[in-house]
């Protein structure tokens, strides 16, 4: 009897422990598993965030390097322009110094006379204003009938293709998706600064300009930047030999030779050439042919081209 009781008690204890174990296992399953799953999700998110930050750090030096390159190039261009302006200011200072010395040499005539000194001061101020006005004025002092804002335009059918520069792209969030080049009609606009030019491949090209009105042409003007403000330090892409032709009828007729010239890259940036052949009839279109440049092997760059003459009586 005693042995059977022990067996029964052992079985009851075993069943009790089994029931308690099953309930504990169910409770742990309900409590711990969701916590472990949340921990796993949190761990995955943390490592994903670390991976993204690491990739961002890898991309950041390249973006900063491109930004630094652009900023350094801009600063270099600004520095060259500042140097050019300083030279102009030095010329103005030298001119004013000479004027002042001349006035000082003649100061005996106005010494002790306040009215005379006041007149001298006014004359110097007028001279300064005159010099500044001349610096701001157009150097050519002739009407430009190839000016876009006055109604002139480029005829694409009679113009060479533009140079394709794969380094010049439009960017969106750091991704270049479209090549960008200046259009040919940029040469008919007055704003001239480094990079704002129309480039065509090679050293020979042409463009057809429809003038703002019919004129009897007398001269043309070619303009390029100077080496002092060029980002590359040279202007080998500037045009050298070029010729000009007039077209009588609707920009499609026979071409009439008007002259052949050489743009001197060591001369002034704005150079005007008198046409070598006079025409009796008024023209509406002028063709510019570039025959050579100053040595650039890939492209030629035109900044501004002007046409001068006498307007026709019949508009």
TrEMBL record:
Domain of life: Eukaryota
Pfam families found in the cross-reference section: Sad1_UNC
Membrane topology: Single-pass membrane protein
Annotated SUN domain residues: 151-312
GO CC annotations on file: nuclear inner membrane
Keyword Protease: no
Signal peptide: 1-24
InterPro entries hit by this protein: SUN1-5, SUN_dom
Tagged with keyword Signal: yes
Spans traversing the lipid bilayer: none
Entry's localization field: Membrane; Nucleus inner membrane
Keywords, comma-separated and alphabetical: Coiled coil, Membrane, Nucleus, Signal, Transmembrane, Transmembrane helix
Role this protein plays: As a probable component of the LINC (LInker of Nucleoskeleton and Cytoskeleton) complex, involved in the connection between the nuclear lamina and the cytoskeleton. The nucleocytoplasmic interactions established by the LINC complex play an important role in the transmission of mechanical forces across the nuclear envelope and in nuclear movement and positioning. May be involved in nuclear remodeling during sperm head formation in spermatogenesis. A probable SUN3:SYNE1 LINC complex may tether spermatid nuclei to posterior cytoskeletal structures such as the manchette.
Database matches in PANTHER family: SAD1/UNC-84-LIKE PROTEIN-RELATED (PTHR12911), SUN DOMAIN-CONTAINING PROTEIN 3 (PTHR12911:SF24)
Assembly description: Self-associates. Interacts with SYNE1 and SPAG4/SUN4. Proposed to form a spermatogenesis-specific LINC complex with SYNE1 during sperm head formation possibly implicating a SUN domain-based heterotrimer with SPAG4/SUN4 associating with SYNE1.
Protein name: SUN domain-containing protein 3
Species of the source: Daubentonia madagascariensis
Organism lineage: Eukaryota, Metazoa, Chordata, Craniata, Vertebrata
């Amino acid at each position: 009897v005693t042995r059977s009781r022990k067996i029964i008690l052992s079985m009851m204890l075993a069943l009790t422990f089994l029931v308690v174990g099953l309930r504990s296992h169910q409770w742990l399953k309900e409590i711990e598993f969701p916590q472990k799953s949340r921990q796993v999700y949190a761990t995955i998110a943390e490592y994903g965030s670390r991976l993204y930050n690491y990739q961002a750090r890898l991309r950041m030096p390249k973006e900063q390097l491109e930004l630094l390159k652009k900023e350094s190039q801009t600063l270099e261009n600004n520095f060259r322009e500042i140097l050019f302006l300083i030279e102009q200011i030095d010329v103005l200072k030298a001119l004013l110094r000479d004027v002042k010395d001349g006035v000082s040499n003649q100061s005996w005539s106005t010494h002790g006379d306040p009215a005379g000194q006041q007149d001298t001061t006014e004359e110097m101020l007028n001279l300064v204003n005159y010099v500044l006005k001349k610096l701001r004025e157009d150097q050519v002092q002739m009407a430009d009938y190839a000016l876009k804002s006055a109604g002139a335009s480029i005829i694409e059918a009679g113009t060479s293709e533009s140079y394709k520069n794969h380094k010049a792209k439009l960017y969106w969030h750091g991704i270049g998706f479209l090549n960008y080049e200046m259009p040919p009609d940029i040469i008919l606009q007055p704003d001239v600064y480094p990079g704002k030019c129309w480039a065509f491949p090679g050293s020979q090209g042409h463009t057809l300009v429809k003038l703002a009105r019919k004129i009897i042409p007398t001269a043309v003007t070619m303009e390029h930047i100077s080496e002092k403000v060029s980002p590359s330090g040279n202007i080998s892409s500037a045009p050298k030999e070029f010729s000009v032709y007039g077209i009588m009828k609707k920009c499609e007729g026979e071409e009439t030779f008007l002259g052949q010239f050489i743009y001197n890259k060591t001369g002034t940036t704005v150079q005007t050439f008198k046409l070598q052949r006079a025409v009796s009839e008024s023209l509406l279109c002028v063709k510019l042919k570039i025959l050579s440049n100053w040595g650039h092997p890939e492209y030629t760059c035109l900044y501004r081209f002007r046409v001068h003459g006498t307007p026709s009586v019949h508009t």
